[in-house]
Structures are given as C-alpha cells and as structure tokens.
Design brief:
Structural class: alpha/beta
Number of helices: 22
Largest sheet: 8 strands, mixed
Strand order of the largest sheet: 14-21-20-15-19-16-18-17
Low-confidence stretches: 43-59, 140-144, 735-765
Radius of gyration: 55 Å
Amino acid sequence: MAIKYWYVLAFALLVSLLIAFAVNRYTTQIFPVSASIIIKESQENVEGKLLYNNVLVNPYRNFYNEPHIIKSTPLITGVINELDFTTTLFREGEIKTSEVYDSNLPIDIHLIKRNPKYSNTSFDLSIISLSQFNIEISEQEISNNLLEQIDYGDTVKLNGFTFLVTRNNNPIDQYLNNVYTVNFSTPERLAKAYAKRLTVSWQEQGSSVINLDMKGTLPSKDVAFLNELITQYQDYDLNKKNQAAIRTIEFIYDHLNFIADSVRFFETQVETFKKKYVLTKLDGEALRLYQRIESLETNLAQLNLQGNYYKYLTDYLRNDDNLDQVVPPSSVGVDDPIMTNLISQLVNLQMEVKVQLSNEKIESPFLVRKQEQIVNIRKDILESVRSTLEAQQINKKFIQGQIKLVEQQLVKLPESERRLVNIQRNYSLSENLYIFLMQKRAEAGISKAATTSDILVVNPPRLVGASITPKPVQNYAIAVVMGLFVPLLFFVTIEFLDNRIQSKEDIERLVDVPIIGGIGHNKIENNLVVHKKSKSSVAESFRSLRSNLNFFTNSQEKSVFLVTSSISGEGKTFTTINLATVLGMSGKRVLIIGADMRRPRLFDDFGLDNAKGLSNVLSGQLKLEAAIQSTTLEGIDLISGGPVPPNPSELLMSNQMDNIISLLLKKYDYIVLDTPPIGLVTDAFILSKFSDHMLFLVRQSYTPKQAVKTLQEFYQNGKIQNVSILFNDIKKVGPGYGYGYGYNYGYGYGYRYGYPQSSKNGYYTD
C-alpha cells in the first residue's frame, strides 16, 4: 500500500519539511549566556592583619547560602532598577514580535512615576515625524484608543504611569511609521522572571567557583544583566563585611557628640581656674588623691558606657526584627566571648532566614527550624545581658563607695587644691572617655577602609556558543522521520485492522484448500475480457487456470465446473464467462448454466434475454432445447437463470436437475455452473454433487477472512470436496502480496463493491 500511494508519502514529507522550515525560520532564538565567579575564603585574603584580627570583622561565611543570595529578590530587583529594565520595547514584524535592546533607536523612553495600584501596562508607539509620535492602546476609556501627535519631551500619563519620550542624536528616517510595543513593569515582577531564568551552581563539589547561566532571546541584554548582578553582589558582600564597622561608627558618633561638649566645658574651667588662682600643679597628697579618684571614675565611666550598650542591645532585641544589624559588643570594649559568639550566631541565622524568605513563597521546615533557633538565641542573649547587668551593679556600688572615701579625704585639702582636683577629675574623665571612643571609631574606620570584597570574576559574562533553539538540523531530521513514519504507521494500521484477504499468504494461513491460480484486475468495463483482449495478462491467467483444471480433473474429456464464492461481488459471473471463453477457444463445446436463479444476469453480458431459462426447464414449463441460447462466441451456449422462481433451492434438488446435467454432457464437453454465494444460500451445496471441480473465488481486498475460515470448516467437515481457491482481482504485488504461480499483476483498483459494478478503471459483475 505504501508503494502504491507513494505520493502520499512524498506529500507528507514535503509538508513536514515545510513545517520544520517555518519552525526554524520563525521560532524565537534562545541563546546561552554564562559567567563564573570565585568566592575567596577569609584566610586567603592579604589585606593586613588588622582587618582579620579585628573583632569588627566576622570571617564566617556559609557558602551554602551564596547561590540563594545571588538569586534573592532584593539583589535582582536592584539590578533591574539600575539597568532600567522596567521599560521594554518590542518591534512588530509580519510573523513575530521581537524585543528591541541596545539598538540605534532615535528615541529614549523615561519612566518618571508609577501609581502603586498598577503593576504593568503596554501600548503601541509609532514614530510619525522628527518632532512627534503617536500612542495607541486597547483600553476603552481613551477616546478612539489613540493619543495623536504628541511632542517629544511632553509628559504623558497613561494607566497610572507617567513617562516622557525624548529624541536622541540617532538618524530617524528609517524608523518613521514603525510601530513599537512599549511595556512598563514593576521591578519586583521582572525580578521574579529573571530569577527563574538564572541558574546558579557550583563549578564542582567542594569548589568555591560559582557558575551563572542564563538562556534568553537577547544575549546582549543578559550579558548586561549578569555584569550588573556581579557588581551588585560584590557591593553586597562588601557592605555585609562592613556592617559591623558602620554600625559601630554610628553608635560611637552618637556618644561622641555629647562627650565632646563636656570635654570643651571642663577644659575651659581648668584654664580659667589656673589663671585666677595662679595654681599650675598639685602637691604630693592632692596629686595622689586626684590620680586615685581619676582611676575610679574612669572605671565607673567604662561601666556606664557598657551599661548604655546593654540597654541598647536589650531594646534592639525586643523591638527590632532586623537582628542582623546589631552592633557587636566588642566595638564598645565589652570583652565577653560568650555574648560575642551568641550575637555572631544570631546575625548569621538572621541573614540565612532573609535569603530564604526572599526566594520562597511558603515557609519550609528549614526556615521554621532557623526561626526557632533565632528565638532561642535571642532569649540566651537577653539572659546573658541580665546577669551581666547584675554583676555590673555590684561593681558600680563598690567603685562609688571607693570614690566617696577619696572625696572625704579631699575635704581636708586646702580649698584651692580641692577645687582644682574636682575640675581636673571631671575634665580627665571626659577626656579619657572621649579618647577611648575616638580610638574605637578609628579602629572601625580602618577596618571599613581596608575591607575588600571576596567576590572575584573568573570568566566575565559572555555568549557561549550558537543558539540552543531552534536546532535546524535536528528539526529537519525529525521532520524527515515524522514525514515518513506517520504515513507508514497509518498504512500499517490500516493493514493491521483490515479483516479482508490481501495476499496468498493470508489464504494459506486460514485454509488447507489448494490455490489453483490467480486472476489480475480487469481494467476494461466489460466481462468479456478474454474475448476482447485475448493477449492481455488477464486472458493469459485464464489460460493458465484452464491448464490447472486439467490437473484436478485428470484431463477427462467431459467435465462440469462450478463457480461460487462466499459473498456477492467477488467476480463469479466474470470468472464463469471468461473460463468458458478459454475453454471454447480450445475447440470444445461449452455450456454456461446460470444456476443463480435468484439474481440472474449472465444473459446481459452476451446481449441475450432472460425470458426463458433454467427455472422454466426445472419447473416443466419448457423443454431443455428451447432454453439453450447461442452466444456470439464460437462454441459457447448459455442457459440463463430464467424468471425468478419462488423455490429455487427445491427446483435444484429435484431429479430433473440430474437429468438435465446428464443430457447436456452428451452434447457439450464442458459445463460451467454459475451459482449463488455459498455463504448465503445452499444452492452451491446442492449443485456441488454434479460438479467435477468447484472454484471458490477469493477477491483481494474484498473477501472477509471469516468467509475463508468458513470454507475451511466446510472442507474439513467434508461438505465440500474437489474444491480449489481462485485468487481473483490481484492488484497489489510485492512483499506480502506476491503470488507464487506467476500472477504478479500490478493492476490498479478502480471498482466499487456491490451488484453489477463498474467504474472508470475496472468492471466486475457477479
């Protein structure tokens, strides 16, 4: 079937190739862009011992968090804002619309303001002249959906967005009347889309190199995105490392403003006192007491400063959710390793939770555990602060008691020395505290200045290879396979589901009845093909059938042949006429008997009538000689079926039929009986006793397989003997259709099933 309908295969292949061409031509190309960075470990830095021995710098880094940080919404949102990706342009083509980026467009679009109620909007913009443009939208609230002739530089308000379009120095002529679709989106919405396209992965297990990969339609835009992402990731890393120093500087600065005023005030008092009393130094006892009280008050000031920090820490932990912004205790001289470690854990956990929350819509069990740890550590820190403050209260009471004892001794000094000691002690206390804070601020500033990012670029963002979609070679290969496979599968399915006989092998698998021969397809609209086309292949096949019948009848001089089939339309009339014709061509006298009295039609092919025939003879209405009609073919006579009787089977079972056959064999060499289908009525069974050999017709692509199985049952049960199968109307040849007797006729199939049938390309009657 596939060979016969080769043009279907060719058409399917052509269509599939055209589809592949369209896919390759009009599918948006996707390009891969890649970059790689390395995260240095702290011990690999060489910025100086001060930075990494300084308590203000936390060398701890959880490398498992880094891919999540890179894909976090805040970081990517910052990239979107910096590159102004919230405004996108698309060029409308005949088939597809493509995004425009980094082009030579003669205009620039600037988004000024967005109403928070609106997340995005789009409109069509067309450049109409050197000074004006049009905007067209789909919303109905705008009259005629068109804003006409807007000047460059004019502010436009549309659907909650305020923007303006300006001209640049690029040529405009080639862009006139071009239509562009402008889309405004929120940074958060775009950040989610870019995070979805961004793939962050480690180079290999245990490596500190991270690969950044993206796939998109505009490689230049993706390269710009990755460049800015790496830059902002480096800034994030640097800011994270400087947070402790920055917060320390802010904390110290708030205290320095107050203490600096105190230092200036007491410094002025000391100078004024010395000028008034001309007293420049203290004597031995006064100096001793001054040094003693100065030391005690310095310690008390340190405790008060630490107390202020603990008060700040307590308020911060109770009222603020940004726990990663807390000032470390070491920045104000609190040397408590336990508390320092707890705060460090708290900061790191809070950073991990922030990263996870920015990448997950629903809290996972991992986040729940981390948040529980934060709550527990917060409680531990508050408990540690409470116990530390209790210990400080004891120290402060002791120091205050010592200060009172020294003050009692100061009362015994002369008034001038006593007043100088009080002034100098206040000045010294403020000055020492001021110097301490200035030192801490300097340390924090040095740490901040010396800090560098641990993020280094290994491979800058670049396009890696050609487009990954579409794949022309693969698409054409798939098209070839599908173009051939689908039609072949269709043909195979039809063949598999077809329950009709297609080949000699089908017959041999179903029955043990011998196959006597095969007849090719009749291409002329006439059953007298042997007479009219005596040299045709069909005529030769009937001559071969005549020879094969001699083998089955042992070449006896007189024989009766019965032609039948399983159903109507298998070519019994056609076979009867042409078999009789080849028998007559051998110089023998041949009689055709139309034993199908239910539907007689043999007479029509010979141009005779059916007014008298076998039914008249069997019913006693007519003598045998009167029923015989001469045909135009030499040596061939016909007894038509005659008028249709009410009881054809009973007439055939009468003794009269036996007498008729005996009489006719005296006059004719061969009698060919045309009978009704054996699968429909019993007439063929009745007549089989008169025949020397029965021809059972099987028509290719017509006879049901079940009908052949029925023949096998009749043959095995002995109901039919001396029978052979004639394979009729052979039109399919080749593997699976070949016929072993040389009847490989490749004829077309152009008839319809049914009663006397004809078509443009073939003719069969039954």
